[in-house]
Design goal:
The complex is a heterodimer of chains A (about 325) and B (about 400). With about 325 residues, chain A is mostly helical. Helix content of chain A is about 75%, strand content about 5%. Classes of the chains: A mainly alpha (about 325), B alpha/beta (about 400). Chains A and B meet through helix 1 and helix 11 of A and helix 7, helix 8 and helix 9 of B.
Chain lengths: ~325, ~400
């Protein structure tokens, strides 16, 4: 049971981590807690379902691997567009406004997106087509069975260290770690990344030396939103979940925010660590104490971190964010 | 100075004018609000939007059909009947708002609400203003245990349902180790508690009793815990979206217990969300409407008009018929007398004969079990019982 609970926690945690990356990046640059980021994740999941519906209307039936690739690109582009538009419409006009106005705007954007999706997509739960989810899962298990030693992979999932993962769980964990590393490299090694770090430290100085601060902020939103979309798709396309609804982003958004704070907000490996720790704590607490208060544990952690170590686990380098 | 004074005057004049216009507006709207003399209003309350919107729409479709039948026959007490919808979005606070709205609109009776957690707070308001309320779907016992003589329901009660469920698990499935899960709502936890109580009375052991969070997507933590207790049956008190995910995640974790649940799960969405995992799950609900000879005509008109029939469409239809029949028998819209007429009524409806006891519950609540087979709900007919040895 213990191993399985850790496994459950890691899977949940990698979803939190992917969303937390978006929170932490935006916070690093704008010092804005973008409460609408959870909704971007929700839109990512919806985009995946819409894309599949589009495919069926044109009777396209691409091979599964190709389909998965298309699915991810479509949703990521969609959410990137939503993210960039949100930044342009809601946050850029407030660049010089007090911090509080920004946060209130962010909550407003969150409510707006929820109701926007409810009105355009309907209030009923949507279900990711289960046959597609199954095809994807079978394709993945095929790959796993080829690369992993025999006996570990099976069409129903992967058994590792006495715990069972669904095939999509493995992809979720691996891709969240990979994306975090890529993001870290991007920020540390590329010119745009350097500009992002510079903007985080001193936007007005950046303007003086010729960095297009608005563009850098836009790029941040685009990357963060695309990462949120991957989390959304991985929840939708997982055989274990597959349910999508318009308010799914709110709680998970708050938890991802908790993860970001726990890891040290503004710190990218911290967001990832925070996500995993939160997921595991939540699973263990739900398993060993009571599942009725599953949502409570995350927020207890948030309060404890804010009281005991406001900089978070990896947040020593707060003055030099990201 | 002059300028400023002038401005202040202007403002004063402006505000007085606007106040004047405003009061005229209010007066006008009050006048236009004045009831149309030849119309009786019936309230339909339920979740018309939100994740349970389908249930609310099913209800209002059923009510619409009944009302149209009466209007074709020339209405009631010489008046036409009209429907006013109230959306409680499955939120108890909204339900109270809806109830107050209905009181203000002067409805002669209410069909609703859907959720027990909405029906119960709303029933206090309806009772206070003497408006008869008939719920087609709220099964929590409390609703009719408050001593309100104008509250009725045409569905069964959770204690009846819990008892039937417990007997089913022990006598037909012949299982004794039960894990009970619920979604912490009035309905879900109420049903789960009744099942637990009845099953334990019959000699079963409850190996786990856990709450989950409505709207959550991941129940692996609690299911992993349940799995260590090796239950033979997992009983869930709650609604279909969580039920679908629960079954799916149970099968993912190789928890092979039989999944049994109640009437909140009987919705095609359950199979859509749960996929193959829902095969062989058991759900308690009223008898199959399709198999009832009395419902044949209703089903024909309904499907022709609105498409596929919902689980509570028939209940809403019968509830409306009962209310309207009672009004026509009482020859008045006085709530007290109408409620009395409902108590004395024996109504032959689409669901068969319905009679109410003094609390407002139906005298006979025929719960049966349904099984998911080939992606469809089917009334469960157990194989011939083996001769006991």
């Amino acid at each position: 049971m213990f191993q399985q609970q850790i496994a459950n926690g890691i899977v949940l945690g990698s979803i939190y981590a992917l969303i937390a990356l978006g929170y932490t990046m935006v916070y690093g640059i704008l010092e804005l807690i973008n409460f609408a980021h959870g909704e971007i994740y929700m839109i990512g999941a919806y985009s995946a379902i819409i894309f599949l519906a589009l495919l069926t209307t044109v009777h396209a039936n691409p091979p599964v691997f190709f389909l998965l690739l298309l699915l991810f690109s479509f949703s990521m582009v969609m959410t990137a567009m939503y993210g960039a538009t949100m930044e342009r419409v809601a946050y850029r006009p407030l660049r010089k406004a007090p911090r509080l106005s920004l946060i209130i705007t962010a909550i407003g954007m969150s409510l707006f997106f929820q109701n926007y999706v409810m009105l355009t997509q309907g209030a009923r739960d949507k279900v990711f087509p289960q046959d597609v989810a199954k095809d994807i899962s079978l394709m993945l298990s095929d790959i796993f069975q080829r690369i992993l030693p025999p006996g570990i992979g099976s069409p129903h999932g992967v058994s590792l260290f006495g715990a069972k993962f669904s095939n999509m769980d493995i992809v979720t964990i691996l891709s969240s770690i990979t994306l975090m590393i890529l993001l870290q490299l991007f920020i540390k090694r590329t010119k745009t990344g350097k500009a992002m770090r510079a903007t985080a430290q001193d936007p007005s100085m950046c303007r003086l030396v010729g960095i297009d601060v608005d563009k850098i902020i836009r790029v941040t939103f685009i990357i963060g939103s695309a990462l949120g979309a991957t989390a959304g798709i991985m929840i939708a396309a997982n055989m274990k979940y597959g349910r999508v609804h318009y308010y799914m982003g709110w709680t998970i958004g708050l938890k991802a925010f908790t993860a970001a704070v726990l890891g040290g907000i503004g710190n990218i490996p911290g967001a990832m660590l925070g996500g995993f720790v939160l997921g595991i704590v939540e699973s263990l607490a739900a398993g060993y104490i009571s599942s009725e208060y599953k949502d409570v544990y995350a927020f207890v952690i948030l309060i404890l971190v804010l009281i005991i170590k406001p900089t978070g686990l990896l947040g020593e380098r707060v003055p030099e964010k990201m | 100075m002059m300028n400023k004074k002038f401005l202040i005057n202007c403002q004063a004049v402006g505000s007085w004018t606007s106040l004047f216009l405003f009061s005229i507006f209010i007066l006008l709207s009050l006048l236009s609000c004045k009831k149309e003399e030849n119309v009786l209003w019936i309230g339909v309350a339920g979740p018309m939007t939100g994740d349970q919107a389908k249930m609310g729409i099913d209800m209002s479709n059923g009510v619409t059909l009944a009302v149209e039948e009466w209007n074709e026959r020339g209405g009631i007490l010489g008046k036409k009947i009209k429907i006013i919808k109230g959306d409680d979005r499955r939120d108890p606070r909204e339900a109270v708002n809806v109830a107050n709205k209905f009181v203000n609109e002067g409805v002669v009776g209410v069909i609703g609400h859907f959720n027990s957690s909405c029906s119960i707070p709303a029933s206090k308001i309806y009772f206070e203003f003497g408006i008869p309320q008939i719920s087609p779907a709220s099964t929590n016992p409390t609703l009719t245990e408050q001593g309100f003589d104008s509250v009725f329901r045409v569905c069964g009660r959770d204690d009846q349902q819990g008892k039937v469920g417990a007997e089913f698990i022990l006598n037909i499935l012949k299982k004794t180790k039960i894990a009970v899960l619920h979604d912490k709502t009035t309905y879900g936890q109420g049903l789960a508690d009744e099942l637990k109580k009845n099953a334990e009375a019959l000699g079963a052991t409850t190996v786990a009793y856990e709450g989950i969070i409505q709207g959550d997507n991941d129940f692996t933590a609690v299911l992993t815990k349940v799995k260590t207790k090796n239950p033979e049956v997992v009983y869930f008190g709650g609604i279909y979206p969580e039920a679908g995910l629960l079954v799916k995640q149970m099968r993912h974790l190789d928890l092979d217990a039989i999944f049994v649940s109640g009437d909140g799960v009987i919705d095609p969405e359950f199979i859509k969300i749960g996929g193959d995992a829902t095969e062989g799950t058991f759900l308690s609900f009223g008898p199959s409407v399709e198999e009832l000879p009395t419902a044949k005509k209703f089903i024909e008109t309904y499907t022709e008009r609105f498409g596929e029939i919902g689980p509570y469409s028939t209940y809403s239809y019968d509830a409306t018929q009962i209310l309207l029949t009672a009004i026509s028998l009482a020859k008045t819209i006085d709530g007290k007398k109408v409620a009395e007429a409902i108590h004395n009524l024996r109504y032959e409806g689409a669901l068969g004969a319905i009679e109410f006891d003094e609390k407002g519950d139906v005298k006979i609540a025929p719960y049966i079990f349904w099984v998911v087979k080939g992606g469809k709900f089917e009334p469960y007919k157990p194989a011939e019982p083996e001769p006991s040895t």
